[in-house]
What does this fold into?
Amino acid sequence: MNTALERIAVSALALLASAVIFGLLLIFYAGVDPFEAYALMYQGAFGSWFSFQNTLTRAAPLILTALCTALPARLGLIIIGNEGALVLGGVAAAAAGVAVAASGPLVTNLAMAAAAMIAGGAWIALAGGLRQYRGVNETISSLLLTYIAIALMNHFVEGPLRDPTSLNKPSTPPIGDANMLGTIGGSDVHWGLAFGIVACLICYLVQRFTTFGFAMQVIGGNPKTARMMGLNVGRYVLVACAAGGAAAGLAGMVEVAAVHGKANASLAVGYGFTGILVSFLARHHPLAIIPVAILLGGIGASGGLLQRRLDLPDAAVVVLQGIIFVCILASETLYGRSWAWLWRFRAVEGR
Amino acid sequence: MDGSDLGLWGVPLAMLAGAIRVSTPFIFVSLGECLTERSGRINLGLEGTLMMGAMTAYGTALLSGSPWLGVLVAAGVGLMLGALHAALCQLPKVNDIATGIGLMLFGTGLAFFLGKPYIQPKAPNLGALDLGAWSSIPQVQQALQVNPLFLIGIVLAFALAWALKNTRWGLIVRLAGESVDAALAIGASVGRVRLLATAVGGAFAGIGGAFLSLYYPGSWNEGLSSGQGLMAVALVIFARWDPIRCLWASLLFGAAGAISPALQSVGVTQGYYLFSAAPYVLTLALMIATCSPARSLRGAPAELGAVK
It folds into this structure.
């Protein structure tokens, strides 16, 4: 059986199962007709050009933060520090943007992107390095680094980088309207989406067509073999983690440069955590990340409509995401087995 | 001295009070995680279990008027979530670390979803024992207000340590974690042992959540937990999988978490957020100091893949 087809079939089955479980929850707890809820979700996510643009705008940071989990996953590492890298990237971008705000939009945006990618990349590379050279579990360390990053953001935003005129919601000084990242063509979708798609394409091409990408696959498959082949595993770990962190940092820059115009607590709204889910749903495949991020961006975008029309709590979409995550993970067990069952079934029938 | 102004002495006193008050959820979650990991499985989803425990305990206490019934229900919910985690991990090819993260997301989301109606109303509190009545200083009295769950946690730590070492059940749990072959040789079903250990570990975490919502901070809202469930995993590693050391580590973490408000109360406001990151930095520093790439950690269950 074709593995790509198997992946799609198993993922679809898992999505269907999560839709059923969430539907049951809606019926028995909230007393809401699940079909109405799903119809509303479709309407809120993809139903009109306006809502689709909203979905795409939400998908942009998800694509970038998902890479933060997907790239190290190629080496067998589970990194979940996406939110931390995003938040630090946002703060670094805001600081850089304010510092060079007078030198024109292009220079400002480049400086912001560079600062964000360096900050995010270094943050996740730290987790990778600790794993490689000190044996510290990268999942736990990257999560702890997230909490530390959020504390650092609060410190900078309320302390050294605070704009004295931001009274109610402490923020950094704005980077200025002229320096904001524009939108693509005639739409309301900002350039962050293009950044994300290009980043995914680059990751795919590197993984698919270069020796570097092949070496990553070898390390992920069997680190001992990789060492015996003379591969410098540590270097690959550091590069993959730094690249993933840089992508998540860039997501922070996009949020600052295209949405908020400054860094404040609205950076830490969970795009990083949803990015983990996107990466797992896409089975860490760079190209699959794009449609999955759009799907989950759509689920997120429809939350408001569910709240207004059906009076569901805003956490409803988080529950749905959690159910999807668990179902997808549990469906891993079907790989290689489901088809064997089907085959046996056919064989019995044919007898 | 009239007792209300202790000057700089207020900082260590507040840290002692914090160690007693803040550490209780740590004690329960880390003991639960300790039991689970000793059986050879890791559960990263205890953060979600903690939130579900907090929400159900609060809801039950509100509806029934009995906070202790809330604690019981929280333990039951934790038991079910732990069993769910164990059952999923039992399936072939299912990654236990990723499943833990998934259940963390699910548990937290579900707690927010189901707990929406309980944010406003005020549920009955668990109450406290006044062990500081001998003192005339209000801060000391306040610091020594001890919740019964704290004492239960201490007893539980010693009981768990004793049971793991001296009972047949403890032996089987340790065997499941140290050597699957040896466990099979004495006729124990490793899967069933891990299922039970993970479920009971989840129940402990649920009780920890009940403490959060029913005693300190003592209300239900979405920002109730600040990662205690996840820090507990690091804490167990720091404690080298020993229940008694889990207890001391929890106290230490509670004290570290109290540094930031304590310093603010004596007028040190600079770097409030930096100090609030102290527990996380401490955990990371401890992991860096105690881990090594060359060998697995001393005291680590041999079947526990996640910490290798």
